[in-house]
């Protein structure tokens, strides 16, 4: 230190700490000359002493004017060193950078000025200190003093020029610092960071694209900034990177895909649109790299399909179609379970479009990876059943298609029908509002006869008789009126089971005939007048041949109250039967337990079915009595009127319970 005092006159040192800028400036010029002489003499020990003096006695001083003088003195010393400055930068740079955080704005301003002059002298030699300088500049970019900000911008431009022309810049050492700063919310800092990213990306020898995953999330953060300028700068940088990705043979799609998936659910519209656009390009370009991320990508796409912004919906749909068209194999890392889980979870989305696409995915997975999907059936089946209650008919129809694909084998078919009956039992609204749609569609997808036989078998053992009765009524109405079940109706016509029908009617007791039964009977009479039963009405033209049909119809007539509209309709119809039709003779070569088709004999044990019917009726009567007994109120002194039974019975038509298997060929 003594060498320094001997080298620099006391008057110069006094002026270096003067409050007047001009005196400090003149003193700095003196310092520059002194250092220049020492450099020429090669006396680096004295130069080191001078720099230590300027640092410790001035730049680190507690007095602001001393600090200002120290900064200008260090810059002057660097100028004096000229080409020899590099070997002293380890002493010169730290006190200058330290001054960037000085509480006095003028000191910070002079620190920028000092480093600017130092950088002009040493150029690329100070790259080794780049991270510290960058960190300091990052903070100064948001300085509260506009003069400091202005000085920092000038310094920043110079540093950028130096870095772009340097071959010593280490992007690997810089990226961690950049990544750390990318989450800062200050708009000035954000502009500073985007500026550096753009500049570094423009340097051919710097591979910013390879490190894009490290700061991509930060750029997406900036897309929702309140400043339009920052949003535009971030968007411009992202657009440039996306173009580079399209032309790059090797990109880390996986890490970036994770970021994009998160950003696709951003509350900011512009961020969502940019993220889904990137995902769209990734799906097209990513190939095998993206296979492990398909589930996450799908989880981002499906909600966007129902986005409130049309442009987002359009890109999301296109991406969804692209992704579904890729036939990846589990052996390649394609996680069927994860994809299935995402699609199933999205069935609870509030948006119909998302639920529809989720079902398309489940259906596609069943087509391509049936065994894998069925291994997760326990995890998804309940959700698929709940989806049958969806408010959208289109969703319900797609759910049924999925159920039908699952139910191709007998075990899963049985499980489906069992669960469906359970669902109808526990959710009466589903049966009322969607029962017909569900049954009709399943009959189309899985064969009507198969569906009705399975339902019939399950309902035979149903303990809840009221529910069984209600479901049978619904099934009968569907069977008798739906166009989808026309083939099954044609098959049932072959049985010509009119004698059996008549026997069923004759077996009814007074307990069976209540208000609800009469309501169902009224519906049946009205149905007999519809086009579906035109064939039956035409058979009355051969009453002698179909004598049991006539007897069954008269049996129904006898059960109806004379004052009812149904009685009048049926009586009018029977009056139209021509008298000549009774003279038609027909020799029946079959026993009463056989029915004949055009192609063979169908063996049906009607006696056994009549016994089953009578047993079921007995159970219903006992059930009705138990309910009636349980609901009898405590008698009062007043005489109460007898109450109607609340029992619900199945329709009393020949199709109330399907017979044993009907076939166009003899068994």
TrEMBL record:
InterPro entries: ARM-like (IPR011989), ARM-type_fold (IPR016024), HEAT_type_2 (IPR021133), Vac14 (IPR026825), VAC14_Fig4p-bd (IPR021841)
GO biological process: phosphatidylinositol biosynthetic process
Ranges where the record places region Disordered: 627-667
Span of the signal peptide: none
Residue spans crossing the bilayer: none
Pfam families per UniProt: HEAT_EF3_N, Vac14_Fab1_bd, Vac14_Fig4_bd
Record keyword Membrane present: yes
Main location: membrane
Gene3D superfamilies per record: Leucine-rich Repeat Variant
Subcellular location, record wording: Endomembrane system
Keywords of this entry: Membrane, Repeat
A GO CC annotation given for this chain: PAS complex
Residue stretches of each HEAT repeat: 92-130
Vacuolar protein 14 C-terminal Fig4-binding domain segment(s): 429-493, 494-577
Family (UniProt): Belongs to the VAC14 family.
Name this protein carries in UniProt: Vacuolar protein 14 C-terminal Fig4-binding domain-containing protein
Lineage: Eukaryota, Viridiplantae, Streptophyta, Embryophyta, Tracheophyta
């Amino acid at each position: 230190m003594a060498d320094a005092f001997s080298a620099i006159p006391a008057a110069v040192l006094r002026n270096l700490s003067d409050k007047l800028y001009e005196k400090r400036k003149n003193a700095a010029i003196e310092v520059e000359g002194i250092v220049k002489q020492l450099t020429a003499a090669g006396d680096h020990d004295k130069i080191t002493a001078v720099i230590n003096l300027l640092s410790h006695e001035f730049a680190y001083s507690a007095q602001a004017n001393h600090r200002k003088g120290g900064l200008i003195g260090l810059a002057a010393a660097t100028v004096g060193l000229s080409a020899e400055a590099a070997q002293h930068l380890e002493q010169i740079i730290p006190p200058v950078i330290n001054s960037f955080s000085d509480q006095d704005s003028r000191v910070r301003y002079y620190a920028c000025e000092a480093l600017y002059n130092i950088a002009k002298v040493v150029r690329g030699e100070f790259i080794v200190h780049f991270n510290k300088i960058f960190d300091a500049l990052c903070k100064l970019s948001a300085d509260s003093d506009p003069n400091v900000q202005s000085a920092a911008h000038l310094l920043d431009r110079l540093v950028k020029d130096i870095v772009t022309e340097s071959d010593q810049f280490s992007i690997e050492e810089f990226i961690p610092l950049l990544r750390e700063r990318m989450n800062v919310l200050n708009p000035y800092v954000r502009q500073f960071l985007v500026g550096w990213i753009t500049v570094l990306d423009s340097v051919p020898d710097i591979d910013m694209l390879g490190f894009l995953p490290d700061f991509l999330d930060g750029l997406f953060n900036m897309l929702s900034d309140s400043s339009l300028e920052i949003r535009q700068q971030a968007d411009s940088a992202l657009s440039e990177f996306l173009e580079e990705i399209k032309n790059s043979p090797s990109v880390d799609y996986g890490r970036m895909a994770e970021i994009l998936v998160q950003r696709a659910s951003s509350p900011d519209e512009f961020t969502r649109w940019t993220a889904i656009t990137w995902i769209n390009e990734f799906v097209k370009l990513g190939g095998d790299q993206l296979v492990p991320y398909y589930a996450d990508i799908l989880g981002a796409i499906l909600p966007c399909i129902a986005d409130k912004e049309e442009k987002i919906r359009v890109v999301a749909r296109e991406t969804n179609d692209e992704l579904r068209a890729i036939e990846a194999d589990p052996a390649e890392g394609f996680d069927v379970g994860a994809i299935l889980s995402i699609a199933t979870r999205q069935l609870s989305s509030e948006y119909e479009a998302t639920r529809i696409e989720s079902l398309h995915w489940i259906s596609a997975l069943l087509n391509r990876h049936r065994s894998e999907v069925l291994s997760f059936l326990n995890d998804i089946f309940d959700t698929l059943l709940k989806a049958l209650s969806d408010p959208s008919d289109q969703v319900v129809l797609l759910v049924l298609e999925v159920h039908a694909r699952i139910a191709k084998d007998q075990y899963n078919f049985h499980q489906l029908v069992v669960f469906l009956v359970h669902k109808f039992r526990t959710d009466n609204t589903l049966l009322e509002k969607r029962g017909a749609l569900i049954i009709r569609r399943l009959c189309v997808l899985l064969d009507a006869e198969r569906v009705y036989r399975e339902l019939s078998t399950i309902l035979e053992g149903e303990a809840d008789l009221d529910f069984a009765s209600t479901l049978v009524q619904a099934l009968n109405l569907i069977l008798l009126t739906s166009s989808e079940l026309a083939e099954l109706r044609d098959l049932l016509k072959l049985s010509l089971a009119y004698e059996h029908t008549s026997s069923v009617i004759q077996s009814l007791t007074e307990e069976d005939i209540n208000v609800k039964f009469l309501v169902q009977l009224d519906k049946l009479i009205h149905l007999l007048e519809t086009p579906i039963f035109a064939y039956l009405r035409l058979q009355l033209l051969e009453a002698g041949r179909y004598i049991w049909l006539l007897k069954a119809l008269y049996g129904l007539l006898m059960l109806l109250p004379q004052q009812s509209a149904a009685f009048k309709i049926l009586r009018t119809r029977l009056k139209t039967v021509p008298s000549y039709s009774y003279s038609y003779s027909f020799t029946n070569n079959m026993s009463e337990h056989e029915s004949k088709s055009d192609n063979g004999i169908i063996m049906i044990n009607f006696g056994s079915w009549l016994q089953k019917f009578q047993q079921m009726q007995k159970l219903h009567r006992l059930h009705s009595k138990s309910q009636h007994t349980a609901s009898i109120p405590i008698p009062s002194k007043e005489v109460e009127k007898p109450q109607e039974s609340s029992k619900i019975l199945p329709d009393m038509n020949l199709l109330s319970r399907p017979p044993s298997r009907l076939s166009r060929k003899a068994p």
